[in-house]
Amino acid sequence: MSAIRSTWFLGEVLERGKVRLVGLRAAGSASRVLHPRRHCWLTVFAAGSLVFEGVGMPDKDKVWYAANEVRRSGERVSQRNVIKVLQRRGRGGTSREVGPHLLTWMVKYGYDARLEVNDIPDRLKGDLVGFVRGVWEEAMIEATGRLEAERARTAVECQAARTLMDEAYGEAEVATRQNEVLRARVAELEAEVEPLRAARTKLEGDVVTLRKQVSDVEAAEFWDRVMRAIQGVLPQNEWVADKDVLRLLPETLAKEADKSGRPLTRGRLNRKMVVRVTHGKYFELDEQEGGGKRYRRAPG
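Now predict its structure.
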């Protein structure tokens, strides 16, 4: 292995049939190795001599022949696969050397790895490729037509949507203005209603006052009738105890008092009758030591 590694740096191929020696190390016996860059054989003998075998750069014919062989094998025709075939045949080559010849081959035979079909005769492959390209072009034309139709439909829909949006915007503007007018009118009505509310509150207070006054008048009128009725039943020359005064009143008057919420009781009668006595009306009062009261009709 050391002998082989040493020979990799013994020489460099300059051009066809020429080798420039860089250095030479003695080897125990002749060694034959493949040059790593030029793909040519170098033989080094024990005496230090160098023999160059297999001239390097392949020409157009060899590259085309190798490309046809790769194509027949069913593999993809590429620089890597073509160089492998050249190496098997004892020929070297790099991508820079093989690439230009392989490109002319592809142009010559219209090679396209994406459309390559290996099971069809060569005379039919061109027709198949043309057919596929025609189908593809027709499909693109149809797709383009559909795209244009879709664009036109979308444009119509967009225009219709804009029209509807404009109408909705106009209606919204009208509604907004009407709402503003209504709000202004509501504010005016509120201003007009406020004095009415104040007047209503005042009237309600007046009604409450009048009702109280009416109630007071009705109560005064009722008790005046009660006092007159008592005056009519009391004797003038005989004292009657307050507890017996109720028995002298007519039953209808007691029912009226109960219905109006002012029942005739002993205490209430005493209060009302004492007021009349104080003003010198209707009755005379005789207050006893035990707190009892007696009444009789006042003269006149």
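Confidence is low (pLDDT under 50) at residues 1-55.
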